[in-house]
Write a structure and sequence with these properties.
- The chain is α/β, with parallel strands linked by helices.
- It has a single domain, classed as Aldolase class I (TIM Barrel, Alpha-Beta Barrel).
- The chain has nine helices and eight strands.
- It has helices spanning 22-30, 46-59, 73-79, 93-100, 113-121, 146-160, 177-182, 192-195, 200-219, and strands at 8-13, 36-40, 67-70, 83-86, 105-110, 126-129, 165-169, 188-190.
- An eight-stranded parallel β-barrel has the order 1-2-3-4-5-6-7-8, surrounded by seven helices.
- α2 crosses α3.
Length: 220
Amino acid sequence: MTPVDHRLYGLVDDDNLAGMDLPALARLSALNGVTLIQYRAKSATTAAMIGTARAIHAALEGTGVPLLINDRIDVALAAGAEGVHVGEDDMHPDDARRLLGPKAIVGLTVASEADADKAAAAPVDYATIGGVFATTSKHNKRPPVGIEGFRALAARIRTSRPGLVVGAIAGIDETNAGPVVAAGAEGVAVISSLYKQPDVAAATRRLRAVVDEALAGRQA
C-alpha cells in the first residue's frame, strides 16, 4: 500500500465550483493544510478534464500534496496524477490497480456493509465512508449513515483489514468534524466547508486544526 494522509481531503469539483479557478483553489488549500486533493467533474468532456487535471497537478507541484482523479483512470494517466478514487458505479479497484500500477494511490467509497467488505478485500490504499451527513454537493442514492453508521462501517473494515486508512465524507464542517474523527475517521473529505468559504486559506487552517485536535485527543 502507498501511505495516504487523509486528514484533510479537498475535493475540487467542476460541477459544484463552476467558474472558479480550481488549480488556484487546490494550491491555496494545499499550502494551508489540505493533505490530499481530488478532482471531480461528472459533466466535463474528457479533453476538458485532462486539461484541468494537468493544470491542478502543475499547481500542486512543490506542495507534496497528491492529486487523485475521481472515477477516470484514463484522465489520471493522461494528467500524470498520483491516483484515482472510485465508487460503486465506477471501475473495480482491481482493474484500477492493474492499470495504474502498484505505486498509484487508489481510494474507494464505502456506503454499506457490502462496500466495507469490498474495501477490506480490494487493493486500495484508503476507504472513504459516506455520506455521513446530508450534503448538497452530490446526490447520494442512500440516506446518510450518521456517526454511528460510520463507526460501524469503519469497525467492519478494520476487523478484516487492520491498518487501512479510513476517512469520512459528506456534510462535514468545523462543527462536526471532531465527533466524526472521534468515531474513528482518520480524516475528512470536504468541498463546501473549504471551497465555498469567503477565505479559503483561513477555512482550511481552521478545519485542519479541528481534525488534528480530534486525532490527538483520540490518541491520548
